[in-house]
Amino acid sequence: SNELTQPPSVSVSPGQTASISCSGDKLGSRYVSWYRQRPGQSPVLVIHQDRKRPSGVPERLSGSNSGNTATLTISETQDVDEGDYYCQAWDSNGGVFGGGTKLTVL
Amino acid sequence: QVQLRESGPGLVKTSETLSLTCTVSGGSISTSYWSWIRQPPGEGLGWIGYISYSGSTNYNPSLRGRVTISLDTSKNNFFLTLTSVTASDTAVYYCARHKGYGQTTDAFDIWGQGTLVTVSS
Questions:
Q1: CA 20 to 30 Å from B115, out of A32, B18, B20, B96?
Q2: CB contact under 8 A, A45 and B113
Q3: Residue numbers in B near A33 (CB within 8 A)
């Protein structure tokens, strides 16, 4: 299967570290991108090629990818980090998105 | 900076054809790859397909046969056509620019604001 699986929700306290996983068959052999979507807004690219940050994305956000799991890590979590996060990769059929993870900062 | 804007009918009747336009401003359509992505209400993102600056295309197999993506370089626009629509095609439709050139490293680095298309009889 080329599906990407994410936990539906992750909760974190302000200032703590949040980790969002994305699992797929041999995902570590593919490049993964991550997007944040706030309510009513378009998605925004926050990580590409597993671990690269676009200009303007804070260093608090980092990515890794190995084996069957990619992980987005957000350190020193702030209220502005709340939103839905989607992983994305490419397979033989084209673009694939994970189901999304709602990050709540309690 | 490059900006994208989707436009088209907000309501399409069941079994008819959905047609959307993505207008690219602040840059040339002839230098990148471009995708359409959709999001049903309350659900996640789904990739529809992409077109290159030269017109080559790649579509989601689940939509192949119903979807066509084309471009007009003279107007800096690209287009989505989806035939025989049903209620399950109701979604916010986004156009997006590739950070890359149709490779497995590609990411979607610029998105339009999205346009809601409702399919109803």
A1: A32
A2: no
A3: 107-108
- C-alpha to C-alpha distance for A63 and A27, rounded to whole angstroms: 13
Of B37, B107, B113, the CB nearest to A45: B107
The whole-angstrom distance between A30's CA and the closest CA on chain B is 7
- Reference B110, options A85, A84, A42, A32; nearest CA is A42
Predicted confidence (pLDDT) per residue in A43-95, tens digit: 999 999 999 999 999 999 999 999 999 999 999 999 999 999 999 999 998 99
Q: What is the pLDDT of residues B61-75, one digit of tens each?
A: 999 899 999 999 999
DSSP string, B17-41: -EEEEEEEESS-GGGS-EEEEEE-T
